[in-house]
Amino acid sequence: MLKLLRPAVTRALTPLGRALARRGVSPNVVTTVGTLGTVAAALFFYPRGDLFPGTVVITFFVLADLLDGVMARMTGPGSVWGAFLDSTLDRVGDAGIFSGLAIWLTVSGQPVLAGVALFCLVAGALVSYVKARAEGLGMTCDTGLAERPERLVVGLVAAGLAGLGVPYILAAGLWLLAVASAVTVAQRLLHVRRQAVSVPPQTLR
Question: What CATH number does the domain containing 6 carry?
Fold first, then answer.
């Protein structure tokens, strides 16, 4: 869904990416700094209940996830290591965000919602794992209701609005994410199964 906005975002980030590339900053550095900033901000602000300022800072660093891609395209074909690093650190960033929310929900006496936040974290990782495993076996798995950009937008918008005092918005956002992530896992499993039944049996590890 949010892939439709990627060209506009790419155009907006291109001048900054070009300036960083001219100064010798590599996409991998941008990826790493963005992830470290995301995790640090999530684990500093969210457990304290500072949801709105935390979301603003996290959003700034999350944009690095788009900026590194823009820079990689400027500097030539992306490297295998760069693609691997980007995908791995995406999971680390997600873990920081939802762990921070889960900690705050736990200390504020909302254990059920804290569990939902942890479910969102696990289900989001499973969404990515199913795709990676399918592609590693030579199949495609670029489908599903809630991919990472959608999950991040819903989670961060809900947290930010909750920080501004909007009632029930965080609970609604987390429950929506939990359901959407579970549906996405099921969609991807079915998509892979339809391809797998036509593949000759082989030994898999």
Answer: 1.20.120.1760
- 112 in Cβ contact with 173 (< 8 Å): no
Query: For the chain, what is the largest distance between any 2 Cα atoms, rounded to a whole number of angstroms?
Result: 56
Contact of 81 with 23, CB cutoff 8 Å: no
Which uninterrupted H or E stretch holds 191?
A: helix 169-196
Is 55 annotated as contributing to ligand binding?
Answer: no
Angle, to 10 degrees, between the axis of helix 64-74 and the axis of helix 80-107? 170
68 is in an annotated binding site: yes
Instruction: Kindly state whether residue 202 falls inside one of the protein's structural domains.
Output: no
- Please state the domain count of the chain: 1
**Average pLDDT of the segment spanning 61-84:** 76
Q: Is position 52 within any domain?
A: yes
pTM flag (> 0.90): no
Nearest C-alpha neighbor of 35 from the set 102, 88, 98, 71: 88
90 is in an annotated binding site: yes
Q: Looking at the annotation, which residues are catalytic?
A: 90
pLDDT at 77: 57
Q: How far is CA 180 from the centre of its chain?
A: 14
Domain of 69 in residue numbering reads as 2-196
Single-letter residue type at 39: V
Q: Was 163 annotated as part of a binding site?
A: no
- Please report the pLDDT score of residue 1 as a whole number: 47
- Amino acid letter at 93? G
